[in-house]
Amino acid sequence: SSTLDLEVNLPGLFRPEFS
Amino acid sequence: VVYGDEDKDAPITKIRDARPHQDSPLTEDDAASFFHKKGFCLFPQNTKVKRWNEDYLKGMVFGSDITKVYSPELESIIRNYLLPEYHVISVDCPPAVLRRGPSSRNNFYGTGVHQDYGLSLEDYKNNLKAYDFSGQAAKEVQKKFDSDQVCGVMVINFWRPIGGYTKANPLRSKPLAVCDPAFVDNGDTVHTALDATSVGGLKGKQTDQMALKYSPQQQWYYYPNMTDDEVLVFKQFEVWKDDSMDKREALPVRGVFHTAFVDPNTPEGSPPRQSTECRVQVFIGKRKE
Q: To which H or E segment does residue A6 belong?
């Protein structure tokens, strides 16, 4: 059966830090 | 960090459909085995609960379907399937459920990645204190934890839709995304607190939970199209006497980070989600011989 994998904006995840 | 439904600045995250990773149709044994590996699973369960009481005080004083029906059902799942390899010392099921959706006391959803109880026993007790009008809850937990036969404590969440959802007409709105704790680095967790009064707790107290920094190694899952006969079981907290308790930075992440999210496949006009949470505290003894 086919999967329902998604790519979404997950709310509240801190953005990765760049330095 | 913006906690909201339209958080377009949040990192794009892959969320895997977890259903193909479990047996189909679901079986109790396979669900339990998945829970062992991942800290969460979809468990098949036809509950006999008719009335989803959400009043903790009434439930405590007068009893309810939660105390009389759901509690023994969940205890049986825990003892027979989720933790059969351990001597389970006690299973503490609350006398009510946390209900979400229209006509519930909480007509909003937990939108925003979080974990509810922190990492250490101190974190957990802090959280209990924030809501504890008796002033005894944290002391009782410590006392139980310290008793000779107890080796560890776990909080297991039973998250279930109750909207009359069937295979032909399943839950489509605002599913729950869950993150495999084995792929969450302690260093990516952020210790957070809420003013307890903002969440129905005590004045002057703070809750204790965690937020999460994005990392590409994190593995997110969800169960699309849940029905009333399925319960999403996930570990919210777990500590053992063997853990080195002095440093919360050294504790592994075992609680499952989670959030409600907008599923792009939800058909327009789908009714809002109706669901319940039941958080069960389990004191665990030695492994069985």
A: strand A6-9
To the nearest whole angstrom, how far is the Cα of B148 from the nearest Cα of chain A? 40
Contact B17 A3 (CB under 8 A): yes
**Half-sphere exposure of residue B45: CA atoms within 13 angstroms, side-chain side:** 27
Q: Which residues of chain B have pLDDT under 50?
A: 1-5
User: What values do phi and psi take at B202, rounded to 5?
Assistant: -90, 145
Which of A9, A15, A17 is facing B8, going by the closest CB pair? Answer: A9
pLDDT on residue B116: 95
pLDDT digits (tens, 9 = 90+) for B112-160: 999 999 999 999 999 999 999 888 999 999 999 999 999 999 999 999 9
